[in-house]
Inverse folding.
């Protein structure tokens, strides 16, 4: 079989990334420049600043991805680029660059849904992983449980009705005085705390629902912090972090297992930035072992935003001849499974 090399480009939020991946599985390069240090002082991503910084580095990032993979544009079979969902201005930088490069080098263009891309991160380090499986996609902007029937074929079984889980992590972290992005900081701090010290609500919604709601948990943590402050009680930040994390993770784990049971599927993958969370991995591993379910999750670098997952997703569209036209536009919102 001929090898196909896809160049993946990702600029939907605050990471500028480009990667060359062979046959959707073998990463030759994955260059990521993060703007975290720039946005940190504002406590979150400032969209206009993100766009400007993508512009500053996009061509160096793509050049570095080609150089590190020892490929030239001639060796590339198609360009896959995130076009939705995300910050519109940020998406436009990667998409415009990808289009211009594809047009000038006479390559096919493949627009990628960022949420779909996260799922494909799972294929980068596990050559035996094949659909069908249940995917828990947990990031700063999304919380979904999806049934992945085949490459590019999804059935969304549940999603958040309000905040994304990563958003709740970042908000709680901010109130605790931890720097953006707060998810990894809460993860680390929670290890020093007692997860049973504060009883925050575990919100399951209706019985059998696979939807999520994290705004109630977030408000409950914020109210707890305010009431402690009003009583002049010193905050035990580690206990707050551990108890919040327990409430969030327990619901995510139980609903994902329930989805696997309901769909009669014994394979689960984790995806998105929050899939880097050590408590989520630990709980999931234990429960999956108990129930004889196969579990896969990407290395940390492929959990958060990266070009390699976009290139992998692009490969499976490439072999199905699913290409995009050059009038493809960036979209701030797009659901998993929706077409362009
Ligand atoms: O996938 P991602 O890079 O961007 C989006 O598509 O949103 O995810 C970023 C999110 C942030 O909310 C960040 O706090 C969270 O992932 N995150 C974590 C951890 N690492 C990143 N949350 C909890 N524990 C972690 N270890
Ligand atoms: Zn993402």
């Amino acid at each position: 079989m001929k090898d196909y090399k896809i160049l993946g480009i990702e600029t939907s939020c605050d990471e500028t990334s480009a990667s060359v991946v062979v046959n959707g599985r073998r990463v030759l390069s994955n260059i990521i420049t993060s703007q975290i240090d720039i946005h940190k002082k504002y406590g979150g991503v400032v969209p206009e600043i993100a766009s400007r910084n993508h512009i500053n580095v996009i061509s160096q990032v793509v050049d570095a991805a080609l150089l590190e993979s020892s490929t030239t544009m001639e060796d590339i079979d198609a360009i896959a680029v995130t076009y939705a969902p995300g910050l519109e201005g940020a998406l436009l930088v990667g998409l415009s660059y990808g289009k211009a490069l594809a047009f000038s080098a006479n390559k096919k263009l493949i627009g990628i849904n960022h949420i779909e891309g996260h799922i494909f991160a799972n294929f980068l380090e596990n050559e035996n992983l094949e659909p069908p499986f249940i995917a828990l996609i947990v990031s700063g902007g999304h919380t979904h449980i999806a049934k992945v029937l085949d490459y590019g074929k999804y059935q969304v079984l549940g999603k958040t009705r309000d905040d994304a889980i990563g958003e709740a992590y970042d908000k709680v972290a901010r109130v605790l005085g931890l720097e953006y992005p707060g998810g990894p900081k809460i993860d680390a701090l929670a290890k020093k705390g007692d997860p049973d010290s504060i009883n925050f609500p575990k919100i399951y919604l209706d019985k059998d629902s696979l939807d999520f709601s994290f705004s109630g948990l977030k408000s409950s943590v914020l109210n707890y912090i305010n009431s402690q402050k009003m009583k002049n009680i010193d905050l035990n930040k580690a206990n707050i972090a551990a108890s919040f994390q327990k409430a969030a993770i327990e619901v995510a784990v139980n609903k994902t297992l329930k989805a696997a049971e309901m769909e009669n599927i014994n394979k689960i993958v984790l995806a998105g930035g929050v899939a880097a969370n050590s408590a989520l991995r630990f709980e999931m591993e234990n429960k999956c072992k108990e129930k004889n379910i196969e579990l896969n999750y990407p290395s940390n670098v492929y959990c958060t935003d990266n070009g390699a997952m976009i290139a992998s997703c692009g490969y499976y569209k490439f072999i199905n001849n699913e290409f995009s036209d050059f009038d493809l536009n960036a979209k701030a919102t797009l659901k998993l499974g929706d077409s362009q």
Q: What stands out?
A: Residues 13, 139-141, 166, 169-170, 181-184, 187, 272-274, 276-277, 304-305 surround KG4 (ligand 1) (CB under 6 Å). The longest helix spans residues 237-263. The radius of gyration is 20 Å.
